[in-house]
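Example record

One chain of 171 residues, shown exactly as stored in the release files.
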Amino acid sequence: QLIVEIDGSLAGANADGLVLSANDSTVRGLVVNRFAGSGFRITGSGNHVEGNYIGTDIGGTMARPNGVDGVLVTASGNIIGPPSSSGRANVISGNTRDGVHVFEGSGTYIGRNYIGVDIAGNNAVPNGRNGVTLRQSSLHEVRRSVIQWNPGPGRPVARGALGRVGQGRGI
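Predicted structure tokens for this chain:
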């Protein structure tokens, strides 16, 4: 059970939750919700976001939306989710727009996450648009995640992006 919740409901207009502008940082074990902007904005490279609940309550079961995306990435070489099965998955659900939006950069790995569902991976906690959007970027990998219940396409949406995307409910 996660116990540190960062509630952005009083942070002000357009406020993002955590902004990772440094390189090679790791953020693990937080609940980030109710920001007017994105829960995480990643502008540095080589960062790792693992074991967080982004856009949900502290139990990972109910929506507490961030106003834009759960995670917005505008830099290269970041990891969203644990790189191995021994790590803890992110729950990226309940956000107003996309769960994960990679806008720029290359080489982002998105894996072993629950996107649009609760911590058990069974109940709907949809993001408002897509589970994952890849835009104006390249060489990304989306694997081993449960991406479901979001109103956009069931698979990650690539707009002007190149990368490898897995198949099915458990991408």
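Notes: The radius of gyration is 14 Å.
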